[in-house]
Amino acid sequence: MKMKASFFTFLLTIFSILLVKAQDKEVVITVDTLSQSVYMLTGQGGNIGIYVGESNVFMIDDQFDRLSDKIKTAIGSLTNKPIATLFNTHMHGDHSGGNAKFNSDAVILVAHDNVRDRIKTNQQAKLDKKEITADYLTKMLPEVTFSEDITFYDGDETIMAFHVHNAHTDGDAMVYFTNNNVLHMGDTYFSGRYPYMDLKSGGSVHGYIEAHKKALMVINDDTKIIPGHGRPSNKKELETYVAMLEDIRSKIQTAIDSNASLEDVKANTSLTKIYDEVHGNGFISPERFRETVYNSLKEK
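Given the sequence above, the corresponding structure tokens read:
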């Protein structure tokens, strides 16, 4: 029986490895041109922002470690200039998982203070299990961090990065290319789908909505928006999105004030029904979104 169990485990492991490899082969990195110098790369995970500057590349997020070679090839199709700055919008692995593959003596890795802390904690757990090396952990960590805002200059372009508090996580930052008029919002915006708010990592529905309002203060009608997930967007769509979030928050707060339980809210499809057809087909289902908003409101 032990031999059969071991053989079954072996087959399961092989199947898992082959499945991951098959999925990797299917991932295609596509490019959207948003301005003369800014591009959005889509693959598997969070959307990547690429700014081709006067002499080098400013990169925002890097998806998963296993996709790094494909992403480098895609960037190489846009320019032969080297990457000089890699900016993490937050700590999740589908946005920062390739840090170690892109980090080098020529690349400066930048993020909010809390991003470094959370990545370090997560990677230390992997090191303790001997899943990674100490060198790999070091390369995963941002070398430059900031608490509120940081600004980069490249010729005529000014790149403004600013922290938004307790939105998707507690370390979110948006990046705005002022001359190109492109804003990368990271996972503070899931275009065309319900958002994921990581409550365990400091996210909240109130902070999420306030992050949108801060973005709306910065941009104009011509701004191109790179969301963390979904297709490129614009100010009008973001305004519609934040109005939806405010409406759902209000409805769920009313339900809470009427002593509705979590199970009541999860089962009450009317709370999100008018938005479900458009926004309910992504990673976060309508029921899960109602649950997240409920839990966030109850936390206060």
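DSSP finds eleven helices and twelve strands in the chain. Try to locate this feature in the token string yourself.
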